[in-house]
């Protein structure tokens, strides 16, 4: 994804910073998503969405443990988002983009409360999930799931 952002920038909608010093900020948040946000969020999606769709009950102990892990990550995000609109700075970057799939699914579960309890995280989620292109992606996913 980073290579695509660098290779195919859209004028006025670049998801990268030109200044080398600024490029490290979104890159760091992509890594945070990969190593801190994704593991608990993926486990929660499995427990709260996939298991019930397959007739299985969520493991409540796993849900509690993973929600605690996610809450700690979201606390860090809340502190970051006090100072900037997006994780990577003043514009939407790959750092925000990488979060969209799991946020989309988590906002359909009781775990949504963890996002809503943090005003800056909640505002960030609303901003990135309301992007027109993301809404198009969701329409395509919903249409594919109905087949």
The gist of it:
The protein has 147 residues and is an all-alpha fold. The chain has 8 helices and no strands.
Provide keyphrases for this structure.
147 residues, mainly alpha, 8 helices, globular
Report on the architecture of this protein:
- With 147 residues, the protein is an all-alpha fold.
- 72% of the residues lie in helices and 0% in strands.
- It contains 8 helices and no strands.
- The protein is globular, with a radius of gyration of 16 Å.
- The model has no long low-confidence stretch (mean pLDDT 89).
Report mean pLDDT, rounded to a whole number: 89
What's the Cα radius of gyration?
16 Å
Termini distance?
28 Å
Name the shape in a single word.
globular
Count of separate DSSP helical elements: 8
- Poorly predicted residue ranges: none
Structural class, judged by helices and strands? mainly alpha
What fraction strand? under 5%
Helix content: over 70%
Secondary-structure element series? HHHHHHHH
How many DSSP E strands? 0
Instruction: Give the biggest sheet.
Output: none
Question: What's the structural blueprint in terms of helices and strands?
Answer:
Layout: H1 2-7, H2 20-53, H3 60-83, H4 94-97, H5 100-106, H6 112-116, H7 119-129, H8 132-146
Helix pairs in contact: 2-3, 2-5, 3-7
């Amino acid at each position: 994804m980073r290579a695509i952002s660098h290779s195919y920038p859209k004028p006025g909608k670049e998801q990268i910073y030109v200044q080398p010093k600024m490029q490290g900020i979104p890159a760091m948040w992509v890594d945070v998503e990969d190593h801190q946000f994704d593991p608990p969020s993926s486990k929660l999606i499995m427990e709260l969405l996939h298991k019930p769709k397959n007739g299985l009950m969520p493991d409540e102990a796993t849900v509690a443990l993973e929600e605690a892990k996610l809450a700690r990550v979201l606390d860090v995000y809340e502190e970051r988002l006090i100072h900037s609109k997006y994780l990577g700075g003043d514009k939407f970057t790959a750092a925000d983009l990488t979060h969209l799939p799991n946020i989309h699914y988590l906002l359909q579960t009781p775990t949504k409360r963890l996002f809503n309890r943090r005003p800056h995280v909640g505002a960030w989620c609303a901003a990135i999930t309301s992007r027109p292109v993301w809404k198009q992606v969701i329409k395509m996913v919903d249409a594919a799931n109905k087949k």
